[in-house]
Specification:
The protein has two domains: about 10-405, no CATH class; about 410-550, no CATH class. It is built from 22 helices and six strands. It has helices at about 1-15, 20-40, 55-65, 85-95, 105-125, 130-145, 145-150, 155-175, 180-195, 200-215, 220-240, 250-255, 255-260, 270-275, 280-310, 315-335, 350-360, 380-405, 405-425, 440-445, 465-475, 520-535; strands at about 430-435, 450, 480-485, 495-500, 510-515, 540-545. Helix 20 links the parallel strand 1 (about 430-435) and strand 2.
């Protein structure tokens, strides 16, 4: 009895000391649970990720673990992943525990929890009051947003953790006169997984190295860059030796800077596909404007600290300078407008860094107690502040909506890509298939896949999308059927057999996917297979085409 009382007393004391952390973790886990329940209900009890891209990593990890092949199919190498570390991590767990769809989800829940711990203790280190600490933690959960990143099953939370750790250690080393030798070595070690989790981490590493040059730590700066470049160079050489580009195809297709270098652009895709994945132009303008304001605000506060202390080598100034610079670089050089501002998973690490940096930067000016006094003279001031906050937080509000809409995203993938994979698994488990969404269909099967988008098939010419090109490629790969969107220039000899239309599409490239037989010899079989599979489809999917008339 006395032991139980002491235990409860310790727990109670721990809660009072760390109540922002406990509250934030509770909110995170409850949110995940609620979204999971809704997702299961929408998807007939199936667990499905909110992006088909997650299954691309899972496909490569599966094939590497089971067959020793780094590729979306088990038949050959493909440079389709821009997150080498995440794919390797999944592969390790698949090798140890077996291939399982839940592995990325469970890993991301653990990583999301670690993220909250890290942010909490960093803010405690900088003596941020508990109430403000909680506000930042809730911002990290809903504005990053962590639940959305968990349900898309990709590498972005791992990237957040590594970026936070790298920046925190960098600031410690740059601003401290009594540096722990361990921190020096940890920062060097962190450079390797940081670039392996996402290539654009090189921007952060180069900027931090530049700061070390300003501190006249030339050897250390050079060492960080060399260690960061080594793993990417090794992978690039392996890729080239296998007939692929030095840079992963996913980066070449998505990065505006790489598009310039390699003379490839999303504008070369069929116009209807391109327009379907680009958000509203006005929304993009607001998101970009808010992101620029966020960067300028961070840099302005950093200059304010510099003028006050007369040195840049203090923690608030370095944190704010890093995040302000990173936002500007990402907006100007890294991504095209489909990944604008904060409104994308690629920018999630910037949101977390910005929340931490701004909080540290204004900490000395935050009131010890929250109180608001209104009078007639203060109305214009609060009005302007409100407008400014709304503008600044508008892209973050969009990110909050990503979490709320996450079950619908999983339902879209379930009703299109998951059903495509189920159909192929049953009737063409080892067939040769052409497709433009290659994640789920490769993860759940062992098909030979011609990827018309170019992520998984290196011989797809991303500058030519004419019907003759598609027909030649399909003949070379002995393609039996194609499951694609009709925006492609379809060869005239292909026979459309059916269509599946998914209602309430919010994340799909197109709500209708079409089934084609590439020659008459495959037509009858495809018709029969679609008819046989038809009763298994969710009832709200609209089916049409030849197979529904026979």
């Amino acid at each position: 009895m006395q032991f139980c009382i002491k235990t409860m007393s310790k727990l109670n004391t721990g809660f009072h000391r760390h109540w922002p952390l406990v509250t934030a973790l509770f909110v995170l886990w409850i949110t995940i649970l609620l979204l999971l329940v809704v997702s299961f209900k929408l998807n007939q009890g199936h667990f499905v990720y909110g992006l088909d891209d997650a299954y691309i990593h899972m496909s490569i990890a599966k094939n590497f673990a089971l067959h020793g092949v780094w590729g979306v199919t088990p038949y050959g190498f493909s440079s389709s992943s821009s997150s080498l570390l995440w794919t390797l991590l999944l592969s390790f767990f698949y090798y140890v525990t077996g291939v399982n769809s839940l592995t990325p989800f469970i890993l991301n829940i653990i990583l999301g929890t670690i993220t909250i711990f890290m942010v909490y203790y960093i803010l405690r280190f900088y003596k941020i009051l508990p109430i403000y600490n909680l506000m930042v933690l809730l911002g990290v959960i809903f504005f990053t947003p962590i639940p959305y990143l968990i349900f898309i099953g990709m590498e972005h939370i791992l990237q957040i953790i590594l970026v936070i750790a790298f920046v925190y250690l960098s600031v410690q080393i740059l601003t401290s006169s009594n540096i722990k030798p361990l921190n020096y070595y940890l920062l060097l070690i962190l450079a390797v997984p940081l670039v392996m989790v996402r290539y654009e981490s090189l921007i952060l590493i180069f900027f931090i190295s530049f700061l070390f040059i300003l501190k006249k730590k030339f050897t250390y700066s050079f060492s960080i860059i060399v260690l960061a470049i080594i793993p990417l160079t090794v992978y690039g050489v392996i890729s080239v030796l296998n007939g692929w580009s030095f840079i992963p195809n996913s980066l070449i297709l998505k990065s505006s800077f790489m598009n310039i270098i390699f003379n490839t652009s999303l504008n070369n895709l069929p116009n209807a596909i391109y327009s379907s994945i680009i958000p509203n132009r006005f929304s993009l303008l607001i998101a970009d404007l808010a992101a620029y304001i966020s960067a300028l605000l961070a840099l302005y506060i950093s200059v304010f600290h510099f003028k006050k202390i007369k040195t840049i080598w203090n923690a608030p100034t370095i944190w704010l300078t890093i995040i302000g610079t990173l936002i500007f670089i990402q907006l100007l050089f890294i991504y095209n407008d489909m990944l604008s501002g904060y409104t994308s998973r690629y920018s999630s690490y910037l949101v977390v860094l910005w929340l931490i940096a701004i909080t540290i930067g204004v900490n000395d000016y935050l009131p010890q107690k929250l109180s608001f006094k209104f009078n007639k003279k203060s109305i214009p001031k609060y009005y302007l502040i409100t407008i400014f906050i709304i503008l600044l937080s508008s892209p973050l509000a969009f990110n909050f909506d990503l979490s709320i809409a996450q079950p619908q995203y999983t339902n879209n993938i379930y009703e299109q890509q998951y059903q495509m994979a189920s159909f192929l698994k049953e009737y063409y488990p080892n067939g040769s298939i052409a497709a433009n969404d290659i994640g789920a269909i490769n993860y759940f099967t062992n098909i030979e896949c011609l990827d018309l988008f170019g992520l998984g098939s290196n011989d797809v010419n991303k500058n030519m999308f004419n019907a003759q090109e598609l027909n030649n490629l399909s003949n070379e790969h002995h393609v039996e059927i194609a499951i694609i969107y009709d925006q492609w220039n379809i060869p005239s000899n292909w026979i459309k057999v059916g269509e599946w239309t998914t209602p309430h599409s919010v994340i799909l490239g197109n709500d209708t996917v079409s089934f084609y037989a590439t020659s008459p010899q495959y037509e009858a079989e495809l018709i029969e297979n679609l008819k046989s599979f038809s009763p298994q489809l969710p009832k709200d999917i609209k089916q049409s085409g030849l197979y529904t008339n026979k």
